[in-house]
Every structure is written in structure tokens, then in C-alpha cells.
Design a protein that fits this description.
single chain, about 350 residues, alpha/beta, Rossmann fold, seven-stranded mixed β-sheet, two-stranded parallel sheet, 9 helices, globular
Length: about 350
């Protein structure tokens, strides 16, 4: 397999790389490029990207003009270009520990191992990892402990205490908590790091809501609406908090996720619809109460994607892709802190 470091800049795409750049980075488990947008906004040049989902690759190509390389487990670390920062929103997996092997070897068989082997081979100045909040307590804390041990002891990186960052504190109306893990190579001689502080900017769903009337396909059918209400009532009677949730215009949305709960817990009331003719096959009629799901574009805005971002896939794939993505403003705020550390350090040399 041949990996070309320099790709042609295409200006007929929404997010071309800038000609003048401050640093280089790679985009692992790239998804649809949330990390990439954030780092390009800060002056970075992406020299390599990897993503295995074919539909995510379609979206990535439409917006950045290149298709990410495929399965990272099949790519040799030495063939990946040199880079300053490794970025990865990797999946949360259990680690199977065999015998007396420790640290780096404990991670074999997991996707984190592929991050570790690339760091070991390429020795980037820094890395920036993102994962679900539950990583902190996953497998009674053993997973995170092994990750940190690998990064600190085996790979010799300075890793400040990971931070839980909430997207709603950085300019998007989504209550989305994720764990950020940052690290700096030993030759950077960096021994302190502060994660970004929340910005004082209140933003609500009204700020990302569709300005025009949306298609009837996003409105719930009377049958589905009745089922949802009955489901929630049953759980309420049992003292459970499961079921749909309505997001008023002046509220912050719940975290969007890949599964159906991401949509059911982000129902909006939008009474602007006047033509209730169904455009898809439904059981019952289109409800007259204004209940609808958020649109894929609204989900994109909840993650900080601009309206220039092209959505070339089906709604089902779009919900999956945005649910899997990172919240760009939170990534960008943290990335800015990382870059400032590296640049200051380079000036001292």
C-alpha cells in the first residue's frame, strides 16, 4: 500500500486545506471529519485520515476532496506520514489482559492499540483523543487506567488528568459530555496543561432550528405518537425516566446518539406545517400537534457543523454520522490550547 502525503488542494469543496499551515495532524477514526474541521480552522494540515465506514467516507470525500484510507488495523504505522498531532475519536472497548503482560501489550486486540502503535512509531509532538464519558468508569476504571499507563509509561508522554468536556459550554445547544485525553511527547518538555474554560455564551435550540417549514417526513405519525406516549406512561408508572423528551426552543438539546433514543429524546414542537399529506409510508396520519424529529441539518448544527457542510447520504446515515461525530467547537477550543503549548515550546528551542 502506498500512502501519499501531499494531496492536491481542491477548491470546489466546502473545506479545502489552507496553503499556509502552522502544524500537521492525522485524523484517525475520522468519521465525517469533525476533528479535521476543528484542526484546519486552527491552521492545521491533515496529512492522513482513516475511516472504515463506507458511507462516512462518501461524506468525507464530498467535503474534503479525499477519501480516507480504510481499516487502520491493516495499515503499517511506518507508512503513515510524519505529523505534529495525532487526533482520534476512538471506540470504547474492553481490554482482555492475558498472563503477566502489562501496559502496551494489554491493549492488543483493541482499536486503541492501533493508536498506541502509531504513536510509538511516529512520535508526534502531541495527541488528542476523544471518547464517551463512560470510558472513565468502563470495566470499573480498568480500561482508562490501562490507556493512561500505556501512554505515560510505555510511550513516555506527559498526560494531564483527562477532562470531561460538555459541548453546551462551547457554543452549541447540546448537552453532550465527552472525555478528552491530551498528551505531549517527552522531548517537548511540557509538564502542565489547562483544558479550555466554558465560554459565556448561551445558545438554545432556537439558534439551530430550521428557518423554513420542514418536510412532513419529519413529523410523527399519529400511530407512532400514541405508541411513544404510552411507552413513556408505562415507565413513569414504574418510576423510570425512559421515553421521549420535548426540547422547547429556549432549551438545550439532549446528546444526539446513533440509536433511536437520540431522536426520541430530542422531539420538538413545530406547528408551522400546513400540508399534512404524507410523503412516506406511515401507519395512521401525520399528527396535528406539531410533534416532529429534528432534521439531519439541525443535528449537524448541534455538533457545530456549518450549513456549508454537504450531507450527501440518506437521513438514516446522516443521523448515524452526526450522532457519531465530535462537537467541533469543543474540539477546536481544546485543540487551540494544545497548539499554543507546542508553538511556545518550539519558539524556546
Amino acid at each position: 500500500m502506498t500512502i501519499k502525503q501531499d494531496k492536491k488542494i481542491k477548491f470546489d469543496i466546502p473545506f479545502p486545506q489552507k496553503k499556509r499551515t502552522k502544524f500537521t495532524f492525522i485524523d484517525l477514526f475520522a468519521g465525517i471529519g469533525g476533528f479535521r474541521i476543528a484542526m484546519q480552522n486552527l491552521g492545521g494540515k491533515c496529512v492522513f485520515s482513516s475511516e472504515i465506514d463506507k458511507y462516512a467516507c462518501v461524506t468525507y470525500d464530498k467535503n474534503f476532496g479525499e477519501v480516507p484510507f480504510g481499516d487502520i488495523t491493516k495499515i503499517e504505522a511506518k507508512k503513515i506520514p510524519e505529523h505534529d498531532i495525532l487526533c482520534a475519536g476512538f471506540p470504547c472497548q474492553s481490554f482482555s489482559i492475558a498472563g503477566r503482560r502489562k501496559g502496551f501489550y494489554e491493549t492488543r486486540g483493541t482499536l486503541f492499540f492501533d493508536i498506541a502503535r502509531i504513536i510509538k512509531e511516529k512520535q508526534p509532538k502531541a495527541f488528542f483523543l476523544e471518547n464517551v464519558k463512560g470510558l472513565r468508569n468502563h470495566d470499573k476504571g480498568k480500561t482508562l487506567k490501562t490507556i493512561l499507563k500505556t501512554l505515560e509509561e510505555d510511550l513516555n508522554y506527559f498526560v494531564p488528568e483527562p477532562e470531561i468536556i460538555n459541548a453546551k459550554n462551547f457554543g452549541v445547544p447540546q448537552n453532550r459530555e465527552r472525555i478528552f485525553i491530551v498528551g505531549f511527547s517527552s522531548d517537548q518538555r511540557i509538564d502542565s496543561f489547562e483544558y479550555p474554560k466554558p465560554i459565556n455564551k448561551k445558545i438554545t435550540f432556537a439558534d439551530v432550528k430550521e428557518k423554513n417549514v420542514v418536510s412532513t417526513k419529519y413529523y410523527l405519525s399519529t400511530q407512532y405518537l400514541s405508541t411513544m406516549k404510552a411507552h413513556k406512561k408505562r415507565h413513569e408508572e414504574k418510576g423510570n425516566g425512559f421515553g421521549y423528551e420535548i426540547i422547547d426552543d429556549d432549551k438545550c438539546a439532549n446528546a444526539i446518539v446513533v440509536g433511536g433514543m437520540g431522536r426520541e429524546r430530542n422531539i420538538v414542537i413545530d406547528c408551522r406545517l400546513t400540508d399534512f399529506t404524507p410523503v412516506t409510508k406511515i401507519i395512521g396520519k401525520v399528527n396535528r400537534e406539531g410533534w416532529r424529529r429534528m432534521t439531519p441539518r439541525e443535528w449537524a448544527r448541534l455538533q457545530g457543523f456549518s450549513d456549508d457542510f454537504i450531507i450527501p447520504v440518506s437521513d438514516a446515515q446522516a443521523y448515524k454520522q452526526f450522532g457519531n461525530s465530535v462537537a467541533i467547537p469543543a474540539i477546536q477550543a481544546t485543540g487551540k490550547k494544545i497548539i499554543s503549548k507546542i508553538i511556545k515550546n518550539d519558539r524556546r528551542k
